[in-house]
Amino acid sequence: MPFFALQVWTGNEARFLTLAQRPLSGTGVRLLWPRRSLRIRRAGVWRDSVSPIFPSYVFLQSAGVDPDLYGELKRTPGFVRFLPSNEALAPLELKDQALLSHFLTFGEVVEKSAAYFDENRRIRVISGPLKNLEGMIVRVDRRKGRARVRLEMYEDSFEVDFGFEALDSAAPPPGKEY
Fold it and tell me: What is the domain-level CATH number for residue 98?
C-alpha cells in the first residue's frame, strides 16, 4: 500500500496522531510517525531521547485518499497540508517510499546501529537503521556515538543524527558478519 506525507504542526505530531487515530480506527488506514532514539548529554547527565526522523511529518498508509478521509484529516487539529499540495494529492515517489520503508522495518522508533571503524577510520555499519546508508553519512562523532545522515524526500534534503554503538575497531574476518 502506498504512503502519503502529511505536514503537521512541528512538535505536535503525537497529539495529531492521537486525535486522528480515533475516527480512522477500523478503516485499514495507518498513520505512522518514524522516530529515532538517541543518548543526549545535558549538564553532564546522559539521557535517552526520542525525536522524529522527519520533523513535522506524519505518514499515511492507505490505498488512496477519498474525500471523507481527506475531510477527517483536515479537520484534525494540527493538520497543515498534504505533500506535495492539497490540490495534487499524490503518494510518495518510489525512492521516498523505499527510504521510509527502510526505517519502518526497524519499528516506529529506531534504535542504535552497530558499527566499527576500518583501518582508514571510515565507519562500517553492520546492523541497524544505518546499514546501507553509509553513502549518505556526512559526519561521524565517535565520542557521542552519532552519525549525521543526509536524507532526501520530495526533492528536499536535510540532515538527521542517528545513534550507533562502536564495536571493536578491527574489521570482521572475511566472510563473517557480526
Answer: 3.30.70.940
